[in-house]
Write a structure and sequence with these properties.
It comes from uncultured Nocardioidaceae bacterium. It holds the Pfam family SBP_bac_3. Belongs to the bacterial solute-binding protein 3 family. The protein is built from 10 helices and 16 strands. By secondary structure, the chain is of the alpha/beta class. Helix content is 39%, strand content 23%. It binds arginine (ARG).
């Protein structure tokens, strides 16, 4: 056979495959309760790694508080949770959910008014506040104390926004793609301080005693899971039911203690 003919044959053979994969993309399947999922038999969950202890890799597995919480939802739905790691901007703009990359976002993500316009949030499942990570004894304990210094922020986060709005103009903000790069930069001294959520920073200083959390800013944030805006009420309802049940029956408390042994249980539990 001449190669042109072979190429044509191959191209023709590909056509039905392409059609099938396009169809699968915008045709999500529905589960018994009407919950739409993009991949059959699965709950496809977008997150941004690492955000320990909410989602991080351990022995080649993605684990964490969010992972365990969402497993409860997957179990209720009778499907497997499968996790997709994607830049935080794609999650916090709602894009990852609205384009069908995933059914649910679970990323230690703060419920904000702005985000609520482009995604639907579940009920709150965690309380957080911004906090400052510094090298132990560095003495920076406010944004003002960082005048003329550098402050690391994580891109697309509420911490970045808080720093942009509240840090004196002569604090140089350095933007990092993820938490590990940000906290590593503080530890090695390539920035003077870093701002992020208190839960992850306390976890970090526990493992890195040469660093400390010097102040909390009391931003009063709450985390929510999120689905595509106005497109998956059934999945949102089921998620809220599962959360509610877990908060009432001791499951939430058990999981909370597993990752935050010394923290105060949120008021919405029990
Ligand atoms: N809670 C903060 C926010 O919503 C930070 C979340 C970062 N999460 C992550 N998985 N990287 O902006």
């Amino acid at each position: 056979m001449d190669t042109r003919f072979v190429k044509t044959l191959a191209a023709v053979a590909l056509v039905p495959l392409l059609l099938v994969s396009c169809a699968a993309n915008d045709d999500s399947t529905a589960l018994e309760g009407g919950e739409k999922v993009v991949a059959e038999g699965k709950l496809t969950v977008c997150t941004h790694l690492p955000y320990e202890p909410f989602q991080y890799q351990e022995d080649g597995q993605i684990v964490g508080f969010d992972v365990d919480m969402v497993d409860l939802v997957a179990k209720e739905l009778g499907v497997e949770q499968t996790i997709v790691n994607t830049p935080f901007e794609t999650i916090e703009t709602g894009q990852a959910m609205s384009t069908g990359k995933c059914d649910l976002a679970a990323a230690g993500m703060t419920i904000t008014e702005e985000r609520s316009r482009v995604m639907d949030f579940s009920d709150p499942y965690f309380n957080a506040t911004q906090a400052l990570l510094v090298q132990k004894g560095a003495g920076y304990d406010s944004l003002e104390s960082l005048s003329g210094k550098t402050l690391g922020v994580q891109t697309g986060t509420t911490g970045q926004e808080y720093a942009e709005e509240n840090a004196p103009a002569d604090v140089e903000l350095k933007v990092f793609e993820d938490l590990a790069l940000l906290s590593g930069a503080v530890k090695t001294g390539s920035v003077d301080a870093g701002i992020n959520d208190n839960g992850v920073l306390y976890d970090y200083v526990e493992q890195n005693p040469d660093t400390e959390v010097s102040i909390e800013f009391d931003t009063g944030e709450q985390y929510g899971f999120a689905v595509a805006k106005d497109q998956n009420d059934a999945l949102l309802d089921t998620t809220n039911q599962v959360l509610d049940q877990a908060k009432q029956d001791g499951t939430y408390e058990k999981l909370f203690r597993k990752y935050f042994p010394d923290a105060e249980l949120p008021g919405f539990v029990g």
